[in-house]
Structure formats: structure tokens, C-alpha cells
Amino acid sequence: MKYKGLFFAISIISLWGISLAYLLNYPIDFYNPLVYVFVLLQMQLYTGVFITAHDAIHGVVAPHNKKLNYAIGFLCATLFAYNNYEKLSKKHHLHHKNVVTDEDPDYYDGNFFRWYLKFALEYVTFWQILLMAITYNLLKLVFPMENLIVFWEVPAILSTLQLFYFGTYLPHRGEHEANDIYKSRSQKLNHFMAFISCYFFGYHHEHHAYPYLPWWKLAEAKEKEELKSLQN
């Protein structure tokens, strides 16, 4: 399907926007379990927005149209807390080129919390914080503050933890096999858990081996790698 990447991108962005619009007017009752379900749903959609920006960086959202691919990547990066798409792109390509080295902007030889802090500081800028603050104060004029915090801010923060833990920390921490040029490990074959955890980016070795594959093709790549290892 020629436009499958575009279909997934539009679907994720639309679901994120529609869900957020609905939840910003949703009556919050912390005894209502649906509130927590919606927080997790919004977190997952936020992660999908970032994954779409990531795939655009690799040119696979709309490979038939470079300008459209860039526009979608720029939009998704902006929606994800005003991230700078050009900066994300430059640093992500450095990550692939220099994975698990001093030149890797995503790598840190330390514990989870220090690594996460280093990871955040690598990308967060003063202008992002300023734009988020302005947006929050403008939205507060229209929507309840509690809803903005619960359904807009908290899911965004949780999404950064989700992306970092499953997409950076678990795949790249610790020692790697000497013959592993990608210095990336994958979670066990389980497509449901791989999708729920981080849009199949737990299959991280496959992503580094085949960076031209969009997120929705990583499951197939993992299956092929498993079959190859069994045959050997």
C-alpha cells in the first residue's frame, strides 16, 4: 500500500487531536477508573505522534513526497511539546551513526535517572518551555486547568518516559555483544506487548539494522530475524 505510512500518520494525529479535544471537557473524578484509562490512552497517542515524527526523519511517512513527509514530521514534532524537528533529525541521525559512543547524543553510561535527565536536557530548550507556558495559559482561558494538567501535561511527560525507557534505555544499556555493530537489543517476540510498550520500537535491533522500515513493519522484521536465528 503506497500511502500506508500517510494513513497511519493521519490516523494517529487525528485520534490524538480528537481524544484531547474530548478530554479537555471531560468531568474529572479521580474515583472514576476511566480517568486513568484515558490518561494512558492519551500517553499512547502522544507517543504515536512522536514516533510519526521519528519515521518522518527517516523519510518513510510519505516517501513518495519529500515535502509532505517533512511537513508531517515538523507538525508532529511541534505537537510534541514544540520540539525542533531539524534538531531532532540531526541528533537522531548522529545516534544511528555513532550508537553507544561518546558522539551518540542519546547515550549515557549511567543509571536510569541520570540518563533520562541527560536525555531530556539534550533536547529540551528554553524556547520550548516558554512556548508551552504560553500555550498552557492561553488554553487555561478556555478549558479547566485540572483537565489541562491531567490530560495534556501528564500524558506528555509519561510519553517521554515511555519513549526513553523502551526506545533508548532498554535497547542500549549495558554491555553488547562484540559482533553487534548496532549495539541494540530487542525485546522478546510478542507483537501485542511490543506495540503497547512503544509502537514496536522494543524491536530496536531491527530498527537499527533496517532504519528505512516504518514502525509498523518492525514486527515483520523481528519475525524474519527470529526465523533466521532458528535456522542457524
From TrEMBL:
The catalytic activity of this protein is classed by the Enzyme Commission as 1.14.19.-
The portions of this protein that span the membrane are 6-26, 33-53, 68-85, 123-143, 149-168
Q: Which top-level group of life is the source organism from? A: Bacteria
**What Pfam families does this protein map onto?**
FA_desaturase
Keywords noted in UniProt: Membrane, Oxidoreductase, Transmembrane, Transmembrane helix
**Does the keyword Nucleus feature in the UniProt annotation?**
no
Known InterPro entries for this protein? FA_desaturase_dom
Recorded coiled-coil stretches: none
Q: Which residues form the Fatty acid desaturase domain?
A: 125-224
Name used for this protein in its record: Fatty acid desaturase
What species was this sequence derived from? Arcicella lustrica
Lineage of source species = Bacteria, Pseudomonadati, Bacteroidota, Cytophagia, Cytophagales
